[in-house]
Amino acid sequence: MKSVPCKFSLSQGHLKLHRKPDDIVYNRLIATQKSHGRILKQGVSAVESEIVTCYCESKAFCNAFQLFIETSEWDVVSATAIIGQFSNHHLYEDAITLFKRMLLLNINPTEFTFGTVLPSSISLQNLLLGKQLHACTIKMGLQSNVFVGSALLDLYAKLSTIEEAKSAFEDTQKPNVVSYTTLICGYFRKERFKDALRLFHGMPEKNVISWNAIISGYSQSGHNEEAVNLFIEMMREGSLPNQSTFPCAISAASNIAAFGIGKSFHASAIKILGTLNIFVSNSLISFYAKCGSLEDSLLLFNKVQKTNLVSWNALICGYAHNGKGREALEFFRRMQAMGLRPNAVTLLCVLLACSHTGLVDEGISLFNRVKLENHELLNPEHYGCMVDLLSRQGRFGEAEKFIHDLPFDPGIGFWKALLGGCMIHSNTKLGEFAAQKILDLDPNDVPSYVMLSNAHSSAGRWRSVSMIRKDINEKGMKRVPGCSWIEIRNKVHVFLTADRNQEKRDEINVVLIFLAEQLKETKVYHCWSLI
Known about the structure:
Layout lengths: L7 E4 L2 E4 L5 H20 L3 H4 L1 H7 L3 H10 L5 H13 L3 H13 L6 H13 L3 H14 L5 H14 L2 H10 L5 H13 L3 H9 L6 H13 L3 H13 L8 H11 L3 H15 L4 H13 L3 H10 L5 H13 L3 H13 L6 H13 L3 H14 L6 H13 L3 H9 L7 H14 L2 H14 L4 H13 L3 H13 L8 E6 L2 E6 L8 H17 L10
Antiparallel strand pairs: 1-2, 3-4
C-alpha cells in the first residue's frame, strides 16, 4: 500500500492537504491542521506537540512522513511509535525509510524498534532487508532478546529456510510461548509435522495460543485425526479452548465425518463459551452438513442472529454435497434476495449442486450469467466444474468444445473430469483420449491408469486391461490405497485396501466367513476377498 499522493501548502498559518474530504477522518484532519498552525506560531517542536501522531491518526501519512523527515529532535520512544503507526497501516516501505532516517539521526534502536520494523520486511517479502536488520540487531547486541528473536524467527520461517529459523530460535535467550509457537508454525509451513509436535511437547509451558497453533496446523494440513486427538488431549490437560480453537477442532471432526466426536465438541463449546460466535457457528453448520445431518445444519443456521456469506456458503455446500441440488439452488436464491453478493466459493458450491444432481441447464445458465456480469469471480475450478457437469450427463460434444474454448490451457483436472464422465457412460474411445492427455501432463498419474483400466474392464476388453496393468507394474507405480472409516462409540476405525495391520482383522474375517457360509446356503454366494 503506497502513501496517498498529496502536497503541502502553507496558507493562513497552517498546512492544507489537497485531498477529497472523508467524513470523520476529514474533520479530524482539519482539527489537526489547525493545531499545527497554532504550534507553528508558538514555536513548539513537532516532537513535543505529538502533531505527527495526530496526522497518522487522521490518515494523513504523507504529512506525517514529511514532518518526521524534517524534524531532528526525535528520541527512540517517539520515533519507534511513529514507525509503528506506518507499519500498522501497511505503509511498510515508508516505515523502513523512517527507520533509516532514525539511524542517520544517531538514535539507537531498541528491541521494540526492531520488533516493529522486522515485520515490515516480512510483509514486503524482502529477505535481504530482513538480514540487514538482523545484522543491525547483532551490532546493537539485541539479537538474543526474546522480543527481537521472535521477530527474526518469524522472518526466517516465512521467507527463508527452517534451519535459519531454528538458529534464530536457539540464539534467543529464554524463548517464550510466542517464540515456540512461531517456530511450530514455521515447521507446519515446511510440512515438518513431527518436528512441530516434538517442539510442542517440549514447551516448558503452554497456553491456548500454542494449543491453537498445533491443532490448526494439523487441521489445515489435512491431518484431521491428529487435530482431533490433540484437542481431546488439550481438554484432558485442563486447558480451556477459546473461540478460535473450536472451529479448527470441529472442522477436523467434520473432515473425517466423526459425528459423535463432533457433537461432543459442540456440547463442550456451549458449556465453555456459552454464546457461540459466528466462526464457531459456521464451523458447526458445515460439520453437520458434511456428516449428512442437514436438519441440524439448518437448525443451527436459523439460530445464528447475523449470518454472513460464510454461513450461507456452508449451508449451500452442505446441500450440494448431499445431493440436494434443488434445495441448494433455493438457498442460493434466498441469499441473493437478502442482498448478499456471492463469491467464488458460493458459485463453486452451486455449480457442484447442479453437477451432482443433473441440473445441467441451470448450471450452464448460472455460469454464463456470471461470465457476463461478474467474470472476475471465475477461476479454473469453476471451468473444471462445468466440464464435470457436462460429462456426467453424457454431453461430450459440449464438454469437448468447452475445453477447446477455454481461455487458458486445461490442466489435469479438466481431463480427469472428462474421463470420469466417460467412465459413467462407457465412452472408452473418448476416455482413452482423455487418459492420454492426463498421462502426457503427468506420466506417473496412477489413478488415470486405473480409471482407464476400469473402463476397458466394463467394456469387456480384457486384453487392454492386461496391457495397462502390465504397464503399471513395469513402471513400478503403486496405487494409492483406498481408505474408509466408520465411527463406533466415539471411536473412528480406519480401513485401508489390503491392510494387514487392522487391529480387528481376525474378528472381521470371522464375520465375513460366517456371512459367506450363510450366502452359500441361500445360493447367492459370490467370491469374497478377505482382508
